[in-house]
Amino acid sequence: MTTTNFEFLDALQQIARDKGIAVDTLLEALANALVAAYKRLPDAAEEAFVTIDSDSGEIRVYGQELDEDGNVVREWDDTPSDFGRIAAQAAKQVILQRIREAERDLKYEEYAGREGDIVTGIIQQSDNRYTLLDLGKVEALLPQAEQVPYERYDHGARLKAYIVEVRKTTKGPQIVVSRSHPGLIKRLFELEVPEISNGVVEIKACAREPGHRTKIAVWSNDQNVDPVGACVGARGARVRMVTNELRGEKVDIVPYSDDPAEFVARALQPAKVKEVRLDEATGTATVVVHDYQLSLAIGKEGQNARLAARLTGWRIDIKSETQLADEESAYAGEDWAEGEWVQSESGEMVFQPAGGGEAISMQEWEKGDLAAEDGSGAAEPVGEAEPDGAGPKAGDDTLEPVAETAGEAPSVEAGE
Q: Residue 326: phi, psi to the nearest 5?
């Protein structure tokens, strides 16, 4: 090995160590650069390749002759006598470019698998469009859409953010982070609560209005561990750390339940729920609370009910005891017909009483409904209308209610 070759390999290994790039990667880039430099020489072979001995540093150029099918028919050593000087001049920019590409790839690979993770950065720049965070080797972008309303980002302050996307660009990885994503809450609790990080306690659901309030539902896989107590910590120390990082955003921690009714009731804490009625067909949960708990259950501008609905996945309708009693008493004295609407042979929708009897057409139903609204208690008989002045009058004994002639007519709730 010559002194020049030794210095060359030593310099190459030093670059590889400093930049965190494999020596083989640099040697491959250098070989490609030398092939391009060789082909610019006079009388250079049309096809050639370069070999670099990783032990001795010796560089050789081999010319090739190919047939029509691309097969090598002849190969010879065509290394120029002054190729070391040519190699040094031609390879410099190519190697630097390859180093930059390798550095970008390393940075991308470092963060590509960290989507959904949390990072800590230093605020470098902030304007109306975005905020830049310095993560050390790279910068992260915090767009306005991912920022918390009214949250200030002071230059030089440390900030935790949630990685939502890692993009690969020609200038290196672009890391998009968020301060409003619900995943930030989960990651912050993982940092503060060991029971969550080791899997004993799970965060089953999370609902958040950034900058105002968050609700999380927690579950314990160990009956001896209280999930809410583990998240709150001694004298609220753990949840206080999360709240401080969120700059005062309130966090409600409720126990998760597999029973939907119980889960809805817990999600409305701190309000105390008296009863929950579920309608699975519409996905609505009707919640009954004491009169003095109504405003607390709804929350300021409906925030508590809104977050509880997002947390549970149910539409929540909150009513006080007085409201429910008034609604039930409004229909307490009415008789409701039992039956169902079916399609007749002619394709018309008719009401078929459950107890049997003749089906009622839509026209007959509407006539009976209008008669009930007039207060006459009877509908006009079905048939052809009598001439003016010849028809029966209200109260006439010849009138018979539809319920007696065509089966009992069902009552209709007001507004249907």
A: -65, -40
Comparing 373 with 75, which gets the higher pLDDT?
75
Does residue 330 register a pLDDT over 50? yes
Q: Is residue 325 part of a domain?
A: yes
Q: Which residue type, as a one-letter code, is found at position 28? A: E
Task: Write the pLDDT tens digit of every residue in 390-411.
Answer: 444 444 443 343 333 333 443 3
Distance in angstroms (rounded) separating the CA atoms of residues 211 and 146: 12
- Crossing angle for the helix pair 3-19 and 83-112, to the nearest 10 degrees: 20
The count of structural domains within the chain is: 5
Asked if residue 410 belongs to a domain, the reply is no
Burial group, residue 50, by CB count within 10 angstroms (0-12, 13-18, 19+): buried
DSSP state of 221: S
Q: In this structure, are residues 288 and 273 in contact, taking their beta carbons and an 8 Å threshold?
A: yes
| Shared-domain flag, residues 356 and 377 | yes
Q: Which of 226, 256, 286 is the last residue of a domain?
A: 256
Q: Which residues contact 55 (CB under 8 A, 6 or more apart)?
A: 1
Distance CA 183, CA 3 (A): 57
The domain of 361 spans 341-383+394-405
Q: CA 200 to CA 220: how far, in whole Å?
A: 6
